[in-house]
Design brief:
The chain has about 110 residues and is mainly alpha-helical. The protein is about 40% helix and about 5% strand. α2 crosses α4.
Length: about 110
C-alpha cells in the first residue's frame, strides 16, 4: 500500500477544501491543515497537492506556501504552469511569489466549517 492509498480520506478532505478556493484567490498548505483540525499536517497537505495533479477538478495552482511562494510549481507539467494558471485568474506573480498575497489570501478555517 502506498502513501496515497493509506491517506486517501485525508487527501480527499484536502481536495474538497481546495475545490472551494474562489478563482483569483489563494490559500496555503497550513491554512488547509488548520481548517481540517490538523494544524501540524501542512506537509501532508503538500503531499496531497502533489498527488492532485492528475485531478482536473482540483485547482492545485491556488495553493501556495505561507509566504505566498509558488513552492509547488515543480509538480506541474512545466515549471511555469502554476504561475500561468494564476495569471489567467488575475493573480499577479513576481519572482515566484504572489503579489498582494495578504489581500488575495482565502482562509478556509474562517470561510467554511469542515
Amino acid at each position: 500500500m502506498n502513501l496515497n492509498e493509506r491517506h486517501r480520506d485525508f487527501f480527499e478532505k484536502v481536495y474538497a477544501i481546495v475545490r472551494l478556493i474562489p478563482e483569483g484567490r489563494v490559500t496555503s498548505y497550513g491554512a488547509i491543515a488548520k481548517a481540517l483540525g490538523t494544524a501540524s499536517s501542512s506537509r501532508m497537505v503538500g503531499w496531497a497537492m502533489n498527488a492532485a495533479h492528475s485531478k482536473e477538478d482540483v485547482p492545485a495552482h491556488r495553493v501556495v506556501n505561507r509566504n505566498g511562494l509558488l513552492t509547488g510549481k515543480m509538480h506541474f507539467s512545466t515549471p511555469d504552469e502554476m504561475e500561468r494558471l494564476l495569471r489567467l485568474e488575475g493573480v499577479e506573480v513576481k519572482d515566484d511569489k504572489v503579489i498582494q498575497f495578504k489581500e488575495l489570501f482565502w482562509d478556509p478555517y474562517s470561510e467554511i466549517s469542515v
